[in-house]
Amino acid sequence: MALAASSTAATTSIGIGLGALAAYAGRQTPALLIVAFLPILGIALAYARLNRSEPNCGNGYTWVGRSIGPWPGFLTGWVLLVGSVVFMAYTSAVTGSVVLQFAGKAGLHGLLGVRLDPNSTLQSTLLGLVALVAVTVTAVTGVRSATRLQWWLLVFEYTVLIAFCGWAVVAGDQPFSWSWLNPFAIGSFSSLAQGLVLSVFIYWGWDAAFTVNEETRNARDAARGGLAALGAMLGLFVFAAIAFQRVLGDDEMVERGPQALTFLGGHLASEPWASLPLAALMCSAFASLQSSVIPTARGALAMGRDRTLGAVWTRISPRYGSPAVGTVLVMAIAAAIALLAVGIPRLNLMILTAVNSIGLLVALYYGLTALACAVRFRGALREGPLEALRAVVVPGASGLALFALGGYLAYLYATMSDHFAVAPDNGWFMLLLPAVFVASGLLAAAWARWRRRSPYFTTGRGTDAEAIALPMDA
């Protein structure tokens, strides 16, 4: 559960994402989070069902490949791999900026003659890369040591988050209204759709629990952890949204946006207590980085042992029992992208736009995995209405709902701008990057199929699929 909860990064999502949701849903942000949870719950149930049948650190990549076909299966693994690396490059800089903000709050404004500036892209990126290296070291040493660190970070950030949000609910002067929980009060369908995809992205990460299912003594523990983390996220997100709206007006929610959590701390308390939400945000950013490295490396391992990626991704550390080389490679690629973004402003815009539009990719691979569940267990339709509902109807409907949502949002992006521009708010540009990710995945699949001659595309598994396994660690 610790890995799944950290990967979802509730404190970071609340501290940065609620303002963006408010731009679409206004005072109905709590309702939007509840509605978005419904298809995600269906996806999570599909993951749990597939995990009971076939625990595999490649999860969606493996399940889709063997249930629907190798091409959509490879695409499922590829978009998750590429999207996670880009997200890590972005998150490392955010982490560095949060650390610099906290240093300023603590009275440290300079180091070795250099003035520390949280708004400096270079300083934030360099410090974020130090954090990325640090969490990579803990990830290499195995799931158990990484989970131990995750629990400590989670306990601190959740304690602070719940305390300040509870304080805001009691002390806020904005009147509560039951309409906050009414999704039909959202202004337009397009706002609802854009808000839902953003909400899907905010919930993204609970499935990290299923990437360590080969390293847990009972594979069902991964499912329990993922579902428990998802339920906890729903409660925290809705509670925090109500708490913020008790303190902030409509315009303030949108305006404060990325600084909403730190503003809440300053509004409710004096120093040093006012800095606790910023400290919690810093812990959440660290935990999110680590919990991104771990599942990404294990997904690449699953693809490597099927020979759809190179053998370098399959190297298991004899000392730690983890995919150490792959973990370091994931970190190095994310670090390289982050460093390039410092010197190439347009690349920085691309990373920001990719993060803004990554909800489309999440909807794609979640939807494919849910459909894989419905296809694999379609025989349950003859086993009674309850079993049919759990194994086929709910996963299938959830997957189709995400596909419909993603398709509608793609249409909105394609029609929202009358020209192409390299800008985070240009619809064609926002649509281009997910399209590039998908197109590159199809090219990589073609290379694996005809150049590597991976048996995954004919038998559904690689020749080394059973020989290379992660040892149980947790």
Describe this entry's structure for a reader.
The chain is mostly helical. It has a single domain, classed as Amino acid/polyamine transporter I (Up-down Bundle). It is 73% helix and 1% strand. Strands 1-2 form a two-stranded antiparallel sheet. A hairpin with a 2-residue loop joins strand 1 (110-111) and strand 2 (114-115). The termini are close together. The relative contact order is 0.19.
Number of strands: 2
CA radius of gyration is 22 Å
The main pleated sheet reads as:
2 strands, antiparallel
Structural class: mainly alpha
Residues in helix, %: over 70%
> What's the structural domain tally?
1
**Given this structure, which CATH class is correct?**
Mainly Alpha
Straight-line N-to-C gap? 12 Å
Secondary structure tally, helices: 17
**Oligomer status:** single chain
InterPro entries: AA/rel_permease1, APC_superfamily
Protein name: APC family permease
Subcellular location: Cell membrane
Transmembrane segments: 32-50, 71-90, 125-144, 151-172, 184-206, 227-248, 278-301, 322-344, 350-377, 389-414, 426-448
Structural key phrases:
Amino acid/polyamine transporter I
Give a brief outline of the structure:
With 474 residues, the chain is an all-alpha fold. It is built from 17 helices and 2 strands.
How does the SSE layout of this entry go?
Layout: H1 2-8, H2 10-25, H3 29-53, H4 60-67, H5 70-105, E1 110-111, E2 114-115, H6 121-140, H7 143-171, H8 189-203, H9 219-247, H10 250-256, H11 260-268, H12 276-305, H13 324-343, H14 345-376, H15 385-416, H16 427-451, H17 456-459
Antiparallel strand pairs: 1-2
Helix pairs in contact: 1-7, 1-9, 1-12, 2-8, 2-9, 2-10, 2-12, 3-8, 3-9, 3-14, 3-15, 4-5, 4-14, 5-6, 5-12, 5-13, 5-14, 5-16, 6-7, 6-12, 6-13, 7-9, 7-12, 8-14, 8-15, 11-12, 12-13, 13-14, 14-15, 14-16, 15-16
Transmembrane segments: 32-50, 71-90, 125-144, 151-172, 184-206, 227-248, 278-301, 322-344, 350-377, 389-414, 426-448
Organism: Actinomadura parmotrematis
Main location: membrane
